[in-house]
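Incident review: delayed structure delivery

Summary: a single-chain prediction request sat in the queue longer than the usual turnaround. Root cause was a stuck worker, restarted by the on-call engineer. No data loss occurred. The affected request and its eventual output are reproduced below so the record is complete for anyone auditing the incident later.

Affected input:
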Amino acid sequence: MSTKAAQPQREQWGSRLGFLMAAIGSAIGLGNIWRFPAVTYEHGGGAFLIPYLAALLTAGIPLLILEYTIGRKYRSSPPGALRKLAKPAEAIGWWQVAICFVVATYYAAILAWAVRYTGFSFDQAWGDDPEGFLNNDFLKLNETPGEVSTFVPGVAWPLVAVWVLTLVVLAFGVRRGIERANIVFIPLLVGFFLVLVVRALTLDGATEGLNALFTPDWGALSEGSVWVAAYGQIFFSLSVGFGIMITYASYLHRKSDLSGSAMVAAFANSSFEILAGVAVFATLGFMAQAAGVGVADVTSSGVGLAFVAFPQIISEMPMGALFGVLFFVSLVIAGLTSLISIVQVIVAAVQDRTGLARVPAVLGVGGAVALVSLLLFANDSGLYFLDTADHFINQYGIALAGLVLLITVSWGLRKLPALQRNADATSSVGLGRWWRICLGVITPVVLTWMMVDSLRHELDENYGGYSTDFLLWAGWGVAGGALLVGVVLALVFRRKPAADHPEPADRPDPVDPPERSS
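Output delivered after worker restart:
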């Protein structure tokens, strides 16, 4: 029996709808709900939508198409797919896997908090001091960042529940697990959020909140930081740069439409972000009016928005318990679909490299990530670890990995023309020269500027006011460690496994049109 015949057939999505739901589920996450509204408000309000749309068209959609094409063409997780592009590029793939490992550990912790806050919403357990309740009663936050002295059972048990649910979905596979889960979760999420939007719009002060969000500051368009913020939001919200879309696309049928699917996923993600902005700022308008202050005085993002500002709002609004349950359940669903996609990158890489069956791979990978997640975030310094890891892995992990991938593919290997032909062969919308210009020039320049600008701020003052010693290992150590792990894994696995031999790197793809003679 030949080696090729002995290889198990790669899983495939059951339908285009299933793939789209999974891709949309991965893109729609916590950042859509608690990052986009604040970024929009701080960078020109309604005027921000112009650079946002420009970033979507010149970076978001082109990057999605690139990752879809690489995944479908080479039918492997990031390390295997990039190895088939060029052997040295495999390190980028393992770097992305390491990034996914880090992100998964703290992303699950946030979902565990949202699970608990769903229950807290029924009786407003946070009382009159939501911030004190979060830090002291719930997280039992240590006064010294990085100093661990107490295990927090109230975080540990929902964290275990989040991991069990995630791994059960993954264990059922791509079609029976991930696809079916997203087909249920995404309509449920949209339904819950529409109810939230309707309720928020009926609150006193909602109009003031929406005016604050959408009133355009046209002068902001002349500021470079606004355009950089738009590209940053698109980059971080579409799940590009750390291997998720390469992995998901590796399960596509050979003749799947790539450009059309990317546009649907990208615009669905952006539509949900705008929906989230309406819900959040209508609610903040109510809070501002109740407190007799301006919307600017109550605007926040991230953990502060979800677990401090919203609990306070829930306590003051009519039918607050119902609003709270819907809000935190929506957070859980949005985060869960993203967490599943993040962990799937690691599972797929392990399967492709070792040949393990799905269940052993899921249990091995999931057990390792879940254990690290529990050790780091179910203690009294969990919030500090989460805050620094999220900041540094986003700024100097995901964004930098995406930049290196683009430079490697477009400038180093000059593979964009070949990948464009592959995508155009089965796509409803042809790419044209604009696609290569966006990926080869515009996006690398913007990402480079983001790196420079971020480093400049980093050197001016310590992030979050943390000590230099803490940031060196909890921040820079995490981001640099992910890169180091990627390089080490690429060296350890430098020999190609038998599974790769049937489809060598230079073998033409079945959907590729023939090269034109010169």
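Verification: Residues 320-354 form the longest helix (35 residues).
Action items: add queue-age alerting; document worker restart procedure.
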